[in-house]
Amino acid sequence: MTGPGKTIVIGSDHRGFEVIDTIRDHLATKGWTVEVAVRPCGDDPKVDYPDPAAEVASAVRDGRAARGILVCGSGIGMSIAANKIQGVRAALVHDATGAEMSRRHNDANVLCMGADVVDTPTMETLIDLWLETGFEGGRHAGRVDKISGLEAVTDSST
């Protein structure tokens, strides 16, 4: 299967550059078409985390990819930046419970991880769990709709 339904876009800043190729190769073995949005050539801090976050999140928002994965040092900056893109539900994940619940209850479409927090084999395990877990829907669909509704709020008094 090709096209956006089986395409995943990944990116990192200088803190995640060492794992991004491993993640790309791991996803390819699982049958995903992988697009690397941003991959620094080394640990030189010339790639700021908002840049790959915006590129990956925009690809998901625009339907060019089904899901996205972002890696920085802690994962925090990536998740904050990616969540600024309308239609993106980026989840910062460090363990199996977070990976599963971010999909099952929150329908997360971008996974954020920290290279300083999660080792590479664990990242691969979390990625697999995250990709294999479906959205439960039901009462959670209404909650996700409420999250989407917050994107339209522009008045601070609302």
How would you characterize the overall build of this protein?
The mean pLDDT is 89. The protein has a single domain (4-150), classed as 3-Layer(aba) Sandwich (Ribose 5-phosphate Isomerase B, Chain: A). By secondary structure, it is an alpha/beta fold. The protein has helices at residues 17-29, 50-61, 76-82, 96-104, 120-132, 139-150, and strands at 7-12, 33-38, 67-72, 90-92, 110-114.
CATH topology-level fold name: Ribose 5-phosphate Isomerase B, Chain: A
Q: Give the structural class.
A: alpha/beta
Describe the global form.
globular
- Share in helix: 40-55%
Low-confidence stretches: none
CATH class: Alpha Beta
Strand and helix layout:
Blueprint: E1 7-12, H1 17-29, E2 33-38, H2 50-61, E3 67-72, H3 76-82, E4 90-92, H4 96-104, E5 110-114, H5 120-132, H6 139-150
Parallel strand pairs: 1-2, 1-3, 3-5, 4-5
Provide a compact summary of the structure.
The chain is an alpha/beta fold. Helix content is 42%, strand content 16%.
